[in-house]
Structures are given as structure tokens and as C-alpha cells.
Amino acid sequence: MNWITNYVRPRINSIFSRREMPENLWSKCEGCGTMLFHRELTENLQVCTSCGHHMQISPRERFKGLFDGGTFTEVDVPRPHPDPLHFRDQKKYPDRMRAAQKSTGEKEAMLVATGEIGRTPIVAAAQDFSFMGGSMGMYVGNAIIAAAEEAVKLKRPLILFSAAGGARMQEGILSLMQMPRTTVAIQLLREAGLPYIVVLTHPTTGGVTASYAMLGDVQIAEPNALICFAGPRVIEQTIREKLPEGFQRAEYLLDHGMLDRVTPRTALRDELIGITRMLLGLPPAVMGDLPAPENEVDVAVPEEIEDPSRKLSKDPGSTPTRAEK
Q1: Residue 5: its pLDDT value, please?
Q2: What are φ and ψ of residue 88, in 5° steps?
Q3: pLDDT value at 180 more than 90
Q4: Element (H, E) at 180
Q5: What structural domains and CATH numbers belong to the chain?
Q6: E strand segments, 129-279
Q7: Which of 132, 136, 147, 133 is nearest to 173 (CA)?
Q8: Is the preceding peptide bond at 203 cis, omega within 30 degrees of 0?
Q9: Which end of the chain is more exposed for a tag (fewer CB within 10 A), N or C?
Q10: Cα 181 to the chain's mean position, in Å?
Q11: What is the pTM of this model?
Q12: Do residues 88 and 77 lie in contact, with contact meaning Cβ atoms separated by under 8 Å?
């Protein structure tokens, strides 16, 4: 035995056999500061299990938790001109686009898909705030038009999840033109007699709020979501007054009649199933209509199954709609 056997060889073996620990095992809640295990956070749809703070969630993650079995089919969206104004600030617009595509893994700031929720066929569209702040450009306008046309063609309701910082400045007036374009697209649903449900998430601001995000037949928001046209800081600097507590947050807008519901993300799927079927004139979804739970052999079915639509209206902890008020 010598120093090579006693020291060098074990040292080399320890280096090559060392297991690297992933850096994303834990996430810190922005609301309460609690360290959350990433798997637990993913299973809870990016909602803090300690304080209920709703973190940002990508459209794909949202759709996996929304659609039956997590399966959906993407809808093709026409691609606009990549840089119509040849805009450049600190970076060229194409360079910003490539950086956003690399960081998010998505083509643009909105994803459109078709699938079923509670055995009810729908079309869904969701904005990705991680992609250049979910800003509304020509692609987002094309995506909403494509979603509306697909809903009319398939005779399905459209559910839209908004999350945006407003219009995309790199496209100038062309981004602002998406406000009337998307409004006309929503009118197509109205003329076809199809429901249009909007779920406003944090944050929904600017031209998005001034167009398609506030045109829903039913307006739902996630807790504490910022929903506004001009932000509170801009308003305070303009009027030089202190704004009320919770101003422009989802609960404040609910109290002032601009929203129908404020629903936690973990309960949102069941709520959307009940509301969608109600608007379509379908009977309430029952347990037998839903996909069987995973990893279950024998599932006990109760003799009497509660009506989800009645639960929505009679649950003392639920928020009443404008019609119920």
C-alpha cells in the first residue's frame, strides 16, 4: 500500500462518481418567503402551499392542468412579419425575440389549443408573461383571431387566460391595431352564440385590458391579480394622491362589479367546467363523465353525486356572480 493507493485513487473515484445536485430543487415564495420543493409546487399548479400566493405559470403547464388527462392539440397561428418597423433600442427586435424564444421554449407570447375539460370540448388561449412580458403584438392578435375562428368552426366555447404588460412597443402602431382586430374576433363568437370566458391572471394591463380581456361573457380572476389599464404608480404620480388599499387588484374589482368571480387556480378547472356546461345548456358534469383517476383500480362512486353547478351558487365560501348579486 502506498500514497497512490491510499489517497490518489480514492480521490479520483470520488471526483468521477460525484453526483451533481440540480439547482432548481427549491423555489422561494415571493409572498411569504417559504422555500418550496419544486415537485410539490408543480403539483399545486405553482400556488404556494403555505400562503396561497399565485406564481407565474406557463401556458403549457396551465393547459396540462386544465385539459382532461393533460392532453391538447395546438392550433396553428399565422406568423406575421418578424420586424416590420426595424425597431432597435438597446437590442434589435429580432435579437430580443430570439432571446425570449430560447428562455421560454415557445414561438411567441400566446398558445392556442383545443381539447376537453370535463368531457366538454373547448378552445383555449393563454398568454405567457415570461415571453417579453406577454406583450400584445401582431402574433397575439393573429392567435386570438385563430382561436375565435377555430371555436366558430368547431362550435366550441373559447376560454382565454390573459397575462400581459400591454402592447408591444417594438411593433408600434401595429400592436395597437390588435385591439380592434381582437374585438372583431370576439364579435364572431357573439354572432355564433358561443360563450367567451376570460380568466384574468397577474398582471393584465394596458391595451390588453382595454380590448379582449374585458369582453368576456363571464369574467374570472385569480386572487390578488393586478388588473388595470394604467398602473397604480402612474396614477399616483398623475393625481398626486394615495390610492386605496388593494386598488386595481382582483378583489377590489370584484367588489366594484367589474368581475364575476375570484377563484384560486387549484379550483379553477372545476369552476370552468361548471360554468361552460351551464352556458352551453348542458347537464352538469358528473363523476362518471370524467376520466378515471390515475393509479386507481377500484373507485368507490357515491350513491348521490352533488350537482357542481348548485355547489357553485350555494357554497357559502364562494363569490357570487353579478347575476346572483
Answers
A1: 64
A2: -150, 130
A3: yes
A4: helix 178-192
A5: 24-55 (no CATH), 57-287 (3.90.226.10)
A6: 158-164, 196-204, 218-221, 261-262
A7: 136
A8: yes
A9: N
A10: 22
A11: 0.80
A12: no
